[in-house]
Amino acid sequence: MTLAAIVFGSLGTITETSELHRAAFNQAFEHHGLEWRWSKETYASLLKVIGGRQRILEFAQQQGQNDVSPDRATEIHEWKTDRYAGLVAESDNLLRSGVVRLVAEAKEAGLLVGFATGTSLKNITSNLDAVPEDISLDDFDGYTVRGDLDEVKPAPDAHLLCMTRLGVRPSETIAIEDTADGVASASVAGALVVATPGDYAVGQDFSSAAVVLSGLGDPDRPALVVGRGPALPAGMVTIDWLRDLLAARRH
Fold first, then answer.
1. Low-confidence ranges of the chain (pLDDT < 50)
2. What Cα–Cα distance (Å) separates residue 170 from each residue in 4, 39, 99?
3. Which residues fall within 8 angstroms of residue 64, CB to CB, at 6 or more apart?
4. How far is CA 213 from the centre of its chain?
C-alpha cells in the first residue's frame, strides 16, 4: 500500500505549548482564590488525566478539597482557556521543527494532510492564529475536534474519524503523535506511527511507534532518532523517508 495521508495527532505535534498551559492553569487558580500552584512535576503527572477540567477535579480530590464541584471546575477551566489563548498570542517560536516544511512537501507530493485532535476548536485556532504566516487550519484536508468524539485518546475515535473524512485507509496513513496516549490511539486505529515526544512526554511508553524522534527536523534544526527506528538522513523527515518507513512495515 502506498502512502496517501499524513495525520498530525495533536497540537503538541505542531507547537510546543505545555509551559503556557501550565502557566494558564496557575493563573486561573490564583484568579479563583485557590492556593494551588502546579509545578512541572505535578503537571506532568496530571497529564495522564485526559482533559483540563478533569485534571482540576483530580487534583482537588488529591488535595481533599471537596468545595471544587464539577461546575466550579468548568468555570476555572473556561477562564484558563481564555488566558491560554492570550499567552499564545503573546508568544514567539511556538512551532516545532519540520512541521511547515513537511506539510508543504506533502501537498506538493499530492498527499492528504489530516489533524486528528481531541482538543477544542478554540484551542486549535488560538495556537494556529499565533503562527498565521506559517500554518493554518486551511492546510488540513480533514480534521477532528473534541465535540466530534465519543471517546478521547487513547481510544482510536479521533484517528478513525479523521481517516474517514480524508477518505483513506489506515494501511496508507502515517500518524505523527507526541504522547503515549496519542500513539496508542493511532496504533489501534491501524496507522503507522511516528512519535515526536513533547517536553512533558519524554519517558512515556512509545513502544508501539515505528520510530521515536526529537522532531521532524529542518536544515537549521535537525531532528534526532531518540528511540527505536531507522536512521534519519540529514536530520529531516521527508516524504521519501516516510514512504520507505511504510513500505518496510509490509515486510
1. none
2. 10, 38, 21
3. none
4. 14
Closest CA to 4 of 171, 230, 210: 171
Residues 6 or more apart from 54 whose CB is under 8 A from it?
A: none
Model pLDDT, residue 126: 81
Which strand (E) or helix (H) includes residue 99? helix 99-108
Closest CA to 172 of 111, 117, 127, 231: 111
For the chain, the structural domain boundaries read: 5-15+95-249, 18-89
CATH superfamily entry for domain 5-15+95-249: HAD superfamily/HAD-like (3.40.50.1000)
pLDDT digits (tens, 9 = 90+) for 209-239: 999 999 999 999 999 999 888 999 889 999 9
Q: Which fold has domain 18-89?
A: DNA polymerase; domain 1 (1.10.150)
Mention every residue, 6+ apart, whose C-beta is less than 8 A from residue 182: 9, 10, 12, 13, 153, 154, 175
DSSP-derived letter for residue 213 is B
pLDDT digits (tens, 9 = 90+) for 16-52: 888 999 999 999 999 999 999 999 999 988 987 878 9
Q: Return the closest-CA partner of residue 237 out of 196, 208, 202.
A: 196
C-alpha cell at 211: 520510530
Dump strand ranges (E) for the chain: 5-8, 112-116, 142-144, 173-177, 192-195, 211-212
> Are 45 and 27 in contact, with CB atoms under 8 Å apart?
no
Determine the Cα–Cα distance for residues 210 and 219; give it in Å rounded to an integer.
Answer: 23
